[in-house]
Write a structure and sequence with these properties.
heterodimer, A: 2 domains, 5 helices, 3 strands, 58% helix, globular, B: mainly alpha, 67% helix
Chain lengths: 162, 126
């Protein structure tokens, strides 16, 4: 029985996705959704996924808020760069950031956050040295970018994925 | 079949504003593909359309159809979710391919490989 509920959060998310797709919360839809979610989770365990250690604390909400704010802010910043034509070559460049986080899931989420934020792009992660290479469109102050990613994202992500 | 004039003025205004903002952002991103100089700069441009641009359009769609059908129409959330999860994969693959090419060609502006990295191995990408 535990194999059917090995990933309760995944089961819940799949059920939510099903209900959103069929756009109804009738008992029949919920029953069908639970069935689909359980079978899909059971099939997922066949892949022998690495168990995820996570803590659902206030850090999740804080991180979501920060990321949403940063996405809006950097959208405006990048749009301004494109529209004003400040597109000199010297302005953008690569930086290396030392990363202390080792959780694979935390790193995956950091990759999504960095890439989904316009203006920064995850390029390469050296897992042996913990050094992350990113490309920044508006590279004025390198230290500021390193501090931003380490303090704003990495700290919260390490709280969520210990 | 529902008609657009059924939409009350306040909802129509907000929907139009969100749609315009979203499409202007996406257009700006497309313009960036033309205006930015290097490959790595250009990769940043389309993210405008994939993040806030798509977000504005999806919120407009949710608002418009929720008001028209007088119930919560929320399945657009899934589009936003799947966009956010899948676009980074494409962008990272493109960036890694460009980096690999630049390193092989020995272009001067390319950051050096730190030794333990193996750019050709996709499993390395955490």
């Amino acid at each position: 029985m535990t194999r059917w509920l090995a990933f309760p959060l995944l089961t819940l998310c799949l059920l939510a996705m099903w209900l959103l797709l069929v756009q109804s919360v009738a008992p029949g839809s919920i029953l069908m959704g639970v069935l689909v979610a359980l079978v899909a989770t059971r099939l997922f365990t066949v892949l022998r996924p690495e168990p995820v250690k996570y803590r659902l604390t206030g850090a999740v909400v804080r991180l979501a808020g920060i990321v949403l704010y940063d996405i809006i802010r950097s959208n405006i910043a990048v749009a301004r760069i494109i529209l004003t034509g400040r597109t000199d070559r010297g302005m953008s460049g690569f930086i290396r950031i030392p990363i202390d986080m080792r959780s694979r899931h935390g790193l995956a989420l950091l990759a999504v956050i960095i890439t989904a934020t316009p203006g920064t792009l995850w390029v390469q992660f050296d897992s042996a040295r913990g050094s992350l290479l990113i490309h920044v469109l508006d590279l004025v102050d390198e230290e500021q970018w390193i501090a931003l990613i380490k303090n704003r994202y990495e700290k919260l992500l390490m709280e969520i994925f210990p | 079949m529902m008609q657009a004039p059924d939409l009350p003025l306040w909802a129509a205004l907000i929907t139009a504003l969100l749609l315009l903002t979203g499409s202007l952002l996406t257009l700006t991103g497309a313009l960036g593909l033309l205006r930015l100089r290097s490959f790595y700069q250009r990769v940043h441009a389309p993210t405008l359309g994939a993040t806030l641009g798509a977000g504005c359009i999806l919120i407009a769609s949710m608002l418009c159809f929720s008001v028209l059908e007088t119930r919560a129409v929320l399945h657009e959330v899934l589009i936003a979710l799947f966009l956010t999860v899948t676009t980074p994969v494409t962008l990272m693959l493109l960036a890694r391919a460009a980096l690999y090419r630049d390193r092989v060609e020995g272009n001067p502006e390319t950051p050096p490989d730190t030794g333990q990295e193996r750019p050709a191995n996709p499993a390395e990408k955490a």
